[in-house]
Design goal:
Shape: elongated
Order of helices and strands: HEHEEEH
Strand content: 15-25%
Number of helices: 3
CATH superfamily: Ribosome hibernation promotion factor-like
Largest sheet: 4 strands, mixed
Number of strands: 4
Mean pLDDT: 81
CATH architecture: 2-Layer Sandwich
Low-confidence stretches: none
Distance between the termini: 76 Å
Length: 133
């Protein structure tokens, strides 16, 4: 008897069209220390990066995502996701999130890096122009 809920992998396997070209999945270097990210998880991360950071794609040079299991088999709050964004003409922005589940850690890091990149780009936009001679 179906409950109406879809599994995580079934929901991610669905092909989605981006809202616009700027929201398309972004190319990113994704590294998993434990090797627990399959192709479905990697495409999910790329799609979410495109949704969150696609509007800043003109200023982004490179994105890397790393996941790790910090405590190993001991359990606890031990899943970590670190996202590093290299911006054109600005310092590199890094955001790290730790959680008990990998999905929550990835989603938290995505939300945090979006705030961080937006803040850095807003600061550059609000800087006064140099006086011309």
């Amino acid at each position: 008897m179906p409950t109406g809920k879809t599994t995580r992998t079934a929901a991610r396997a669905r092909a989605r069209k981006p809202d616009s070209a700027r929201r398309a999945p972004l190319p990113a270097y994704i590294r998993a220390e434990q090797g627990d990210l399959g192709p479905v998880d990697r495409s999910y991360i790329r799609r979410k990066l495109g949704t969150r950071l696609g509007k800043f794609s003109d200023s982004i040079v490179r994105i890397s995502v790393r996941t790790d299991d910090l405590n190993g088999p001991r359990g606890g709050v031990d899943r970590m996701c670190r996202i590093k964004v290299v911006l054109r003409g600005l310092p590199t922005q890094v955001f790290e999130c730790r959680n008990a589940s990998l999905d929550a850690a990835v989603d938290g890091a995505l939300a945090g890096i979006e705030r961080t990149v937006r803040r850095a780009l807003d600061r550059r936009r609000k800087q006064p122009l140099r006086k011309r001679r």
